[in-house]
Design a protein that fits this description.
By secondary structure, the chain is mostly helical. The chain has one domain. It is built from 3 helices and no strands. The chain starts with a helix and ends in a 16-residue tail after the last helix.
Length: 73
């Protein structure tokens, strides 16, 4: 797997996990009463935005990472 794909996967998975963890104070810790549809929808939206940003960043800055900044500068 290339460095770019590993970086992109890490960013997308991190955004998804952040979306789920950010809802803990609001939803509580009981998985039986958790609003799974809303939580997964929000987390998937964040992951999609991270994916689109990573794909767009492929053509800006360093081509071997999914970030917009060029680490060589």
């Amino acid at each position: 797997m290339s460095r770019y794909l590993r970086d992109l996967l890490e960013r997308v998975a991190g955004a998804f996990a952040f979306g789920m963890l950010a809802q803990l104070p609001q939803q509580g810790f009981d998985v039986r009463t958790w609003q799974w549809g809303d939580s997964l929808s929000l987390s998937a939206s964040l992951a999609l935005l991270a994916l689109l940003a990573g794909v767009a960043a492929r053509y800006k800055g360093d081509r071997s990472t999914a970030g917009f900044t060029d680490p060589r500068r």
